[in-house]
């Protein structure tokens, strides 16, 4: 009987994971195709004044890096989010069944998670924007260098263009590096909150053990496995 229940749960999980993976993949393809077609349609029908005002690096950035983000990065992030969300919900259900007293600490931890997430998202959004803005001049300079390579060699200005390209790349990395630091900051805070959750669960289980000695042992192990 128990093996049948576990088998049914495993099969249901496999079907659910397959369905949402297919849905996210197809949705990412459709979204990327729609975005690319819309951008291409608008660019090809833009007046000449648009190309005079807009650097070519901005257009290259939109059609390369940001389109690649929609193609490959966003679908994988959505899959990770869905998997993490179901893991969190399942862990909370197991923990609440094993140790109902944990419900006391869930609201404070939720508030702490909310403030960490709010602070990180606001900072990360601005850092991503700065990194995207500083990437466009790199593409612009590279494109202009390719178009005028013969003139640059004729006047012997290779070193100057190399230094300028290195400077623009360094400026872009100055905006990219803080985003990595922000990700590490978030990871440390989330790990801290997770450790606080484990410590609170162990403390409450020790208190609950005195009341429900015969039942709490197995459930405590299940709760700790769910958290870890």
From TrEMBL:
Could you tell me which InterPro entries the record lists for this protein? ABC1_TM_dom, ABC1_TM_sf, ABC_transporter_C-like
Describe its membrane topology: Multi-pass membrane protein
Its transmembrane ranges are 15-35, 88-116
Q: Main subcellular localization, coarse class? A: membrane
- Source species taxonomy: Eukaryota, Metazoa, Chordata, Craniata, Vertebrata
- This protein's GO CC annotations: basolateral plasma membrane
Which protein, by its recorded name, is this?
A: ABC transmembrane type-1 domain-containing protein
Q: Which PANTHER family match?
A: ATP-BINDING CASSETTE SUB-FAMILY C (PTHR24223), MULTIDRUG RESISTANCE-ASSOCIATED PROTEIN 1 (PTHR24223:SF241)
User: Which SUPFAM superfamilies does the UniProt entry name for this protein?
Assistant: ABC transporter transmembrane region
- Domain ABC transmembrane type-1, residue spans: 1-202
Q: Which domain of life is it from?
A: Eukaryota
One Pfam family this sequence matches: ABC_membrane
Keywords for this protein: ATP-binding, Membrane, Nucleotide-binding, Repeat, Transmembrane, Transmembrane helix, Transport
Localisation per UniProt entry: Membrane
Annotated GO molecular function terms are: ABC-type xenobiotic transporter activity; ATP binding; glutathione transmembrane transporter activity
């Amino acid at each position: 009987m128990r093996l049948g229940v576990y088998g049914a749960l495993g099969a249901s999980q496999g079907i659910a994971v397959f369905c949402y993976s297919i849905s996210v993949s197809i949705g990412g393809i459709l979204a990327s195709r729609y975005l690319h077609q819309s951008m291409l349609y608008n660019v090809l029908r833009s007046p000449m004044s648009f190309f005079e005002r807009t650097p070519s690096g901005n257009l290259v950035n939109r059609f390369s890096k940001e389109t690649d983000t929609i193609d490959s990065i966003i679908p994988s992030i959505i899959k990770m989010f869905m998997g993490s969300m179901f893991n969190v919900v399942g862990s909370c259900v197991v923990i609440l069944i094993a140790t109902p007293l944990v419900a006391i600490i869930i609201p404070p931890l939720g508030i702490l998670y909310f403030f960490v997430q709010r602070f990180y998202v606001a900072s990360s959004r601005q850092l991503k924007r700065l990194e995207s803005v500083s990437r466009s001049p790199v593409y612009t300079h590279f494109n202009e260098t390719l178009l005028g390579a013969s003139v640059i060699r004729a006047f012997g200005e290779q070193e100057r263009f190399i230094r300028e390209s290195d400077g623009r790349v360094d400026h872009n990395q100055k905006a990219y590096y803080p985003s990595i630091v922000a990700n590490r900051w978030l990871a440390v805070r989330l790990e801290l909150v997770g450790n606080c959750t484990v410590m609170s669960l162990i403390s409450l289980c020790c208190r609950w053990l005195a009341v429900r000695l015969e039942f709490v042992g197995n459930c405590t192990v299940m709760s700790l496995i769910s958290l870890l």
